[in-house]
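lol ok so funny story. i was supposed to be doing the assay writeup but got distracted and ended up predicting the structure for this chain instead. priorities right. anyway since i did it might as well share w the group, maybe its usefull for someone
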Amino acid sequence: MSLAWVVQHWPDLVVATVLAAVLAVLVDLLRVSSRLRESGRWVKDKLAEGSVAELNRRIVEQEKYRATLQSYLGSDKAFYVAILRSLAGTLLFMCIAGTVLICGRLGAIAFPVAEFMSLGVLAVAIVAGISTLQLGSFDASTLSKLIRSYDAELLRLKEARSNLQNRHNIVRWVFT
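and the output, tada:
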């Protein structure tokens, strides 16, 4: 591959690189123990460690999600309803994208805007579909492992809240 070829085909190389990055992110999101999701939770937890109110909000949020996972483990009906709801949402977004595209082709919406809008809605449908695939991959052992990881995270958040409250109490004691 010569430098002249790279210079001549640089737009193709940029598109290929962007598509490869998007595909890598999608593949990572399909895994149950996604590094992207874990890093997102880690960042949220670190940001919440600054105040007791934020820590309490994160703890409530994590406990709610843990209870949802626990309900999936305890009842197949709750799990199947969640899958059905996710599938219906994905199909709804696909139908909306098709409707926007057809309206654009008929002239009801400006031509370029309709295609970009339908592309955006299809992107949301893809994300919803990935979420459904990830949810559908849960089995009893995976759910138990996830619940244990959330238990550990909740314990760490509660310890951080306790340490922060103790620091505030010590500061109050020193100044009184």
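The radius of gyration is 23 Å. The CA atoms of residues 64 and 70 lie 10 Å apart.
back to the writeup now i swear
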